[in-house]
């Protein structure tokens, strides 16, 4: 862990990503304590430009955009982490199981994975969210289902590679239980690329959930959520651009930060790149 922290500190892009993410986390954790309610309506102050009292302006209902931004950030950032966590657990479980067990189980699992990957991820997420019903929880489930096959495929390839190593053969020769070999030897040594995949997918999860919110299939009014706020204020993008630019720019920064950190982790797990940077 110490080596990883030292490596990330020497990686400029990783530090930029960590700085952006840290600033966003500080804003969404401390900001709600300093601003008014994100659902407070004041029709006499609707569509006010940024200025004292409303530093990011107000929307068409007179709601403070800064308040909606910091409150909505809690939902949006939590969405990315929770969605990837669910997809990671499901995808890695079935992927490692398929790669380690092989045979008919591998065939069945991977054919299901191939069928799901044959659909564009966002199109499949839209179809699932529409079938489940418009809500933030259903949108998160839909995005998690579309991401799980990606983890399954990477996990299977890693399990196949690790299962052919000599230390796994030695564990079999010693008569260790299959469950212990799977967890202590295969999964532990295959986890690196999966963590990189997870860090990169957080940004994708935020974008996909924001897209569902933009289409009305995610967070429902008056809940503050960045994607839903962009959709709700799109009609005023020309006359009052601050209503859509704030949450849109926040989504951009969140996705950028996770992608930069993910790229740095990819360099860490690549011995050649790690030696060049370190």
Automatic annotation (TrEMBL):
<keyword id="KW-0813">Transport</keyword>
<dbReference type="Pfam" id="PF12911">
    <property type="entry name" value="OppC_N"/>
</dbReference>
<dbReference type="Pfam" id="PF00528">
    <property type="entry name" value="BPD_transp_1"/>
</dbReference>
<keyword id="KW-0653">Protein transport</keyword>
<feature type="transmembrane region" description="Helical">
    <location>
        <begin position="112"/>
        <end position="132"/>
    </location>
</feature>
<keyword id="KW-0571">Peptide transport</keyword>
<keyword id="KW-0472">Membrane</keyword>
<protein>
    <submittedName>
        <fullName>ABC transporter permease</fullName>
    </submittedName>
</protein>
<keyword id="KW-1003">Cell membrane</keyword>
<dbReference type="InterPro" id="IPR000515">
    <property type="entry name" value="MetI-like"/>
</dbReference>
<keyword id="KW-1133">Transmembrane helix</keyword>
<comment type="similarity">
    <text>Belongs to the binding-protein-dependent transport system permease family.</text>
</comment>
<feature type="transmembrane region" description="Helical">
    <location>
        <begin position="75"/>
        <end position="100"/>
    </location>
</feature>
<dbReference type="GO" id="GO:0005886">
    <property type="term" value="C:plasma membrane"/>
</dbReference>
<feature type="transmembrane region" description="Helical">
    <location>
        <begin position="186"/>
        <end position="207"/>
    </location>
</feature>
<dbReference type="GO" id="GO:0015833">
    <property type="term" value="P:peptide transport"/>
</dbReference>
<dbReference type="GO" id="GO:0015031">
    <property type="term" value="P:protein transport"/>
</dbReference>
<keyword id="KW-0812">Transmembrane</keyword>
<dbReference type="GO" id="GO:0055085">
    <property type="term" value="P:transmembrane transport"/>
</dbReference>
<feature type="transmembrane region" description="Helical">
    <location>
        <begin position="12"/>
        <end position="35"/>
    </location>
</feature>
<dbReference type="InterPro" id="IPR050366">
    <property type="entry name" value="BP-dependent_transpt_permease"/>
</dbReference>
<feature type="domain" description="ABC transmembrane type-1">
    <location>
        <begin position="73"/>
        <end position="262"/>
    </location>
</feature>
<feature type="transmembrane region" description="Helical">
    <location>
        <begin position="244"/>
        <end position="266"/>
    </location>
</feature>
<dbReference type="InterPro" id="IPR035906">
    <property type="entry name" value="MetI-like_sf"/>
</dbReference>
<dbReference type="InterPro" id="IPR025966">
    <property type="entry name" value="OppC_N"/>
</dbReference>
